[in-house]
Amino acid sequence: MVDGAPERDQRYNAWKLNHELARHHEHVRGQVYETSRCHARTPCLDSCFDCTVLWDTLSTYAAQNDLDPYNILRSILKYHVYAAAMDSHCTWLDHYLNPQGPSMQQRWWDVIGALGRGDLTEAVAALEADGEEDTNDVDWADIADSLS
Predict the structure, then answer these.
(1) How many whole angstroms separate alpha carbon 123 and alpha carbon 129?
(2) In angstroms, rounded to a whole number, what is the distance separating the alpha carbons of residues 17 and 45?
(3) How far apart are CA 16 and CA 48, in angstroms?
(4) Do residues 87 and 78 make contact, with C-beta atoms less than 8 angstroms apart?
(5) Is 78 exposed, middle or buried (0-12, 13-18, 19+ CB in 10 A)?
(6) DSSP of 70-83, one letter per residue?
(7) What is the pLDDT along the chain (148 residues), one digit of tens a residue?
(8) Is the pTM of this model over 0.70?
């Protein structure tokens, strides 16, 4: 964990960095890591390296600043992992300032788009997003028909 900003510039050996990234990609990714995060509160994140580092970083920050780490995580998910797709009538700021969140139909098409791109994290975040409640006749399993 880095505390604060570096005092001076640091130069890195690009070959060594590339070698370490390749080693990480081949041997570290895909493993399951232990985390203190309550999975029931954040189902769109798993126990992969990236999700665990994200949680460790923000929970440390929250502890140092007497904040709730789940509120910070919720904000990151809302504004950086899943934001409802914009249409021609709305700007990003309109979505950002909308206290109601996306409609059920908007989330439906966003889930289809995310799954079509292979972005499971964004798809689950769209399902979890605060917004219009699902109607009784909505069965999210029907989304499979739109993916084939």
Answers:
(1) 10
(2) 27
(3) 24
(4) no
(5) middle
(6) HHHHHHHIIIII--
(7) 557 777 888 888 999 988 988 887 788 777 778 888 887 887 788 888 888 888 999 999 999 999 999 999 988 887 788 777 666 566 666 666 766 777 888 888 888 988 888 888 888 888 888 778 878 888 888 888 888 6
(8) no
